[in-house]
Amino acid sequence: MRLAHRVRSRARVILATCLALLFLLAVLLPYDSAVRLSVRFNAGRAAARIWGAGPADAAAVVAALPAPRELDLVEDVAVLLKSGYGTRRRIQPSLAALESGVGCRDVVVVADFEPAPLGLRYEYRGADVPVRDILARVLLDAGLRWMAATPRFRKYADMTAAVAAGRPELAEELGKRVGWELDALKFIPGLDLTYELLPSKKWYLILDDDTYVIRPSLRLLLEHLDPDVPQYIGNPVGDFKGRFAHGGSAVLISRAAMHRLFRQHPKAVAAAYREALTETWGDKLVATTLIKVGVYLDERYARLFNGEPPPLTRIRPDRFCAPLVGFHGLADPAQMRNATEVLKGIDDVVLWSDVWSIFGGPNISADAKEEPATRDADYVGRVDETTKVVKGVGEAEKCSARCASDPKCLAWTWTSADSVCKMAPSMILGTKSEGGFSGINAPRAQQLLGRCHKTA
């Protein structure tokens, strides 16, 4: 008995010590301390393993619960749309997609060129919308003019000079070569400007000019979130030291987070302007800047965000029934126009599994044991660690049979040139693949579809 009592007492002491250490970490270490970030990251992963918490469960909650608060996407959401000289042809299709989809009243478009000298104009909701050269605006600030002599701003100056000299080919070449560097310079000034112009919005949505957002799914998500809590939400990438929301997948920041950064922490904003001169990724800079003021990426809704265009959107079992907020990689204006047309008028929440039917995937019969193979198709897509690759499979039917006998296989592709059978626990619409045969494990797909609870 005494031994058991001593063990319990020692356990309580250890627990109290651990809690005290965690409290000291929270109080004494800066928000961006590597130790603090590591503890936060690993604690979140442990919680997901132990209690089943995490993005999948959050997605299920969002899909099943009624909206707890009112939200008007037209009035409550501001969009920061980023573009550049090299991608200027995407701006109007992106604005048309926003108007048809999200439909918010206020859009701030930032770029690295002035459209007027080029004879360009853009429309949104029946009116001209200004496209602001955000880098020129930075250099108008007397305290930031020194940046003009830095390498990235010199590259911007070279591109601007080529445009002014009527040398579009050179400007295009420079834009493609240094576009990602100039993009990194736009995030913080763009957010700064958006908040200055529209400080009363509930939510701020950052979009690339090749990102499409699905209105009903976005509305469902935001109706479940409180804009008066500092929140930063998106598609997580990166390690624990700089976990950030992938910019192309759409990024959401609440008004409380924007207020904390731009009104309460001007030193952090000033530092971010300087760090943009060398930071590789502007979307990562948003995260590291918000971390400094105590706003961390909320990963509970990660599986609602998507970094691929419709044909390459990987429909996984853990996402089948989750709402899908949008697509990325619609780099050709025709792709953006097509997505806008296909999704126009859809008022129901779009799930990941809906991509298959909405964008023209073959019908998956409820009573079919095996779907017929599709010639010159590839529903598996890029090979990754989840893909099974079997060599020496003589015909498509044998590949199909292997998939049907594998409880995790959802799609298969067989190529005649090398007799290789690829099987994946996910499926994509894919693009044309010469010499390939591909199919879906219909019973597995129907089993997954049967779990979905559709919410309007």
Automatic annotation (TrEMBL):
Enzyme Commission number:
2.4.1.122
Q: Where is the Fringe-like glycosyltransferase domain?
A: 199-261
Q: What InterPro entries does the record point to? A: C1GALT1/C1GALT1_chp1 (IPR026050), Fringe-like_glycosylTrfase (IPR003378), Pan_app (IPR003609)
Cited Pfam families? Fringe, PAN_1
Compartments, as annotated in UniProt: Membrane
Q: Please give the GO cellular component terms listed in this UniProt entry.
A: membrane
Span of domain Apple = 385-425
Q: How does it sit in the membrane?
A: Single-pass type II membrane protein
Sequence similarity: Belongs to the glycosyltransferase 31 family. Beta3-Gal-T subfamily.
What is the protein name stated in its UniProt record? N-acetylgalactosaminide beta-1,3-galactosyltransferase
- Which species does this protein come from? Thyridium curvatum
